[in-house]
Protein 1
Amino acid sequence: MKAWLDRRGVRVSRKRVQRLMRAMGLRAIYRRPSTSRRSP
């Protein structure tokens, strides 16, 4: 979110974005380890 805002010319700190996202109930989407896979 911070990088997206930076590209649009909005100067904001990472912590402010983190606080606002938490207040709005938003969560980041990112890759997680595949812990549900069976081992070979």
Protein 2
Amino acid sequence: MKRIISTEKAPKAIGPYSQAIEANGMLFISGQIPIDPSTGKVIEGGINEQTEQVIKNIGAILHEAGYDYQDVVKSTCLLSDMDNFAAMNAIYGKYYAENPPARAAYSVVKLPLGVLIEIETIAVK
């Protein structure tokens, strides 16, 4: 059975997709970008600030679905510039300090709204 997850504490979907879908004890969170859900705008700042906002958005969706960061099993990080990898990794590591999930990180040509980072997430109960 499929359950649509939606929260006002994370950015609204800006296209024909859901913030997250839960199916068979697995939560699939769509790629999150550094939008402040209270304003609907990309936050100001560099990779540190943008990574923090993305992970907070992921946390809000996890919480809405009854999950936590410890339930995350896979992340895919998309970066507009691989030179930002070390800074992103430092912020990311604060949230996944113990038993971190599997992860892939890619540099891409361009991300929505010109942001520096997007992260999609899979969690399992």
Protein 3
Amino acid sequence: MFKEFKKFIMTGNVIDLAVAVLLAGAVGLVVKGFVSDIMMPIVGQFSGGLNFEDMKIVLSAAVEASEGVEAKPENAIMYGRWINSIINLVIVGFVLFIIVKGYNKTKKPVEEAPAAPAGPSDNDLLTEIRDLLKK
């Protein structure tokens, strides 16, 4: 069983998948940093300095006990975070679109293989067989 597991793990597909997962995690961090640290301040600037993260609908306010300690936390719908998520999706989607479009331009156009010459039809073959049988 150990030999089978070792053979499975050492195949190229599993190693390629592991590398792809690790790279995807690293790329995810880079994309998240780009969107949150570079693009969102620009979006906030165009929206009049509005920070979407702070937008919410308070359902019930926080209840404070003595000396500023919260007895019950605030219950709120944080729709600003959802707006940020949508903006992140649009930005990442656009950047990926540009990357894929650029990549597709670098690929050589695929030339279609010439069509195979059309062979005789079934009727032609049957006619030929009939003629051979008559001889």
Protein 4
Amino acid sequence: MSEQVARRFIDALHKLERDRDLDAIVATFAENCDVGNVVSPRTFEGREGAREFWSVYRETLGEVESTFRNVIATDDRAALEWTTQGTASQGHNINYDGVSILEIDGDAITRFRAYFNPAELGHQIQEG
């Protein structure tokens, strides 16, 4: 089941990146989820928190596309290895790698964390 949820998440992320569709990605999360990454000191809680997290992600970037190299799934977890390429909202090119960990209950993500080099991404966004 977790691999199916991970694949749904990947499809929803592509919709967010391509079409700015927030609803599809928010729908992959449980009502009581918690969402975060290495950049934000804050944990985003619940579906509204997930909506805010992914909205900020999308607003930070211009054209963007994530490619997934590996999806590793167990019964209730998935690890996604990815590369994201595109432009920052100011037009600077970005290209960074990372890993996301999904904790899953049934058909929904209960916890999401993304790990990547924030200094590398920050430099690309600000300096180009």
